[in-house]
Write a structure and sequence with these properties.
This protein is an alpha+beta fold and 387 residues long. The chain has two domains: 256 residues, no CATH class; 107 residues, OB fold (Dihydrolipoamide Acetyltransferase, E2P), CATH 2.40.50. It contains twelve helices and 13 strands. Helix 6 runs parallel beside helix 7, helix 9 packs antiparallel against helix 10 and helix 11 packs antiparallel against helix 12. The longest helix is centred in the N-terminal third of the chain and has 30 residues.
């Protein structure tokens, strides 16, 4: 069985455009894996009763008798949530309080010292990033994960490398697009890497697409390990991320005090997951799966929808905020038929949300843009039935 490739004039033009995407994508892939190597986390299992909190260079500092680190916002939210007292918006307000009046700084320090100094003395896994350059300059590392000591650690680097090798073996390549976003990203606490088949598909006349896979994970508890099919509309670089094909929660056996032993477990779990990822990739990018996705796009492009109701359903499902749902409707109703396909269809709705994600990323909110592309995939998943 072969792929449903298009040989139309539009597809030929699209293939010519892909050449530049591929060259740029290879360069980006090298930078991506280089950063993964430089920012590999260092682990410390610490009794919470030994923690202290202070400020340095206008940043929150966490100390133990042996070490001192800066605190990333992600780790701060995890740290506060573990108290069982302060969560969500309260954590954000406390994190920002030190930038205001002096009393805000003292209040925050008092709360942290009290909650951890007088609370239950559990152990936590602290995951720190400190590059060799920072260490040589005496710059403290940064806590990006403040996690349970039952957190199942997986080393993102080897897992992503196994994914890249398996995808390469069946003809997929990394690509970087000429818009202000990328299907591959390396944020502080969440990373994603994508590879695409260089085949051009045209399930609907004039709708040229490429299809690939994206793998996402976080070494810091900010995202689960996921593997998803992605589709990109070539002329506008709207990216849609479909349902998760592989999900693992990072919990496992309680980490022992002997860190050397836990490092062996860490390596074993990482190797096992890397092997599983390699096995799955071939099936997901095989002709049967991809052709079924193209059939699904045809159905989506012929299905009329009420955009207001569709985006409201996504909001009720937790995929969009109220203001985002309203903005998505506005984008759907724009007269543009180049950045989005024509017609009041489910396919246009998915592309409207993908276009919204591009705009959100261009405004600087990269993490939310990733989530919006996943929400666009929810439209695809809910309005199609594929194997």
């Amino acid at each position: 069985m072969s792929y449903y490739q298009s040989d139309s004039e539009a597809a030929d033009k699209a293939r010519a455009k892909l050449a530049g995407f591929i060259d740029s994508g290879r360069e980006q892939a090298g930078d991506f894996f280089g950063r993964l190597q430089r920012e590999m986390p260092r682990d410390y299992v610490v009794s919470t009763g030994k923690l202290d909190f202070d400020y340095q260079d206008n940043r929150i500092v966490v100390s133990t008798p042996q070490n001192q680190w800066f605190l990333h916002r992600n780790a701060f939210q995890q740290l506060v949530a573990k108290t069982g007292i302060l969560t969500g918006n309260v954590a954000d307000k406390m994190f920002d309080a030190h930038n205001g009046e002096p009393w805000g700084r003292e209040l925050l320090l008092h709360n942290l010292r009290t909650m951890y100094g007088k609370g239950s003395r559990d152990r936590v896994l602290i995951r720190v990033v400190q590059t060799d350059e920072q260490a040589s300059q005496g710059i403290p590392g940064e806590i990006r994960g403040f996690l349970s000591d039952r957190y199942r650690r997986l080393n993102t680097g080897p897992i992503f490398q196994a994914f890249a090798e398996a995808a390469h073996n069946i003809g997929a390549v990394p690509m970087r697009f000429d818009r202000k976003f990328s299907a591959t990203y390396s944020h502080d606490v969440r990373v994603g890497f994508s590879m695409f088949l260089d085949n051009v598909f045209e399930p609907v006349n004039g709708e040229t697409l490429i299809v690939g896979l994206t793998i996402q994970s976080s070494d810091f508890g900010a995202a689960a390990l996921t593997l998803r099919l992605v589709m990109l509309r070539i002329w506008c670089s709207n990216l849609m991320v479909t349902q998760d094909e592989l999900r693992r929660v990072h919990l496992g056996a309680k980490l022992p005090d002997d860190i050397r032993f836990s490092d062996k477990t860490y390596q074993h779990d990482t190797d096992t997951m890397a092997s599983a990822i390699g096995d799955v990739v071939g099936n997901l990018l095989g002709p049967a799966k991809i052709n079924a996705q193209m059939d699904a796009v045809q159905r989506l492009a012929s299905e009329r929808v009420d955009a207001g109701r569709l985006f409201a359903d996504l909001r009720r499902g937790g995929h969009l905020l109220k203001a985002e749902a309203a903005r998505a409707v506005e984008i759907f109703n724009e007269p543009d038929v180049e950045l989005m396909p024509a017609g009041n269809t489910a396919w246009r709705a998915a592309q409207a949300l993908s276009l919204f994600a591009n705009r959100v990323e261009s405004e600087g909110n990269r993490d939310r843009a990733v989530d919006l592309r996943h929400a666009a995939g929810v439209i695809f998943d809910k309005h199609t039935e594929t194997d």
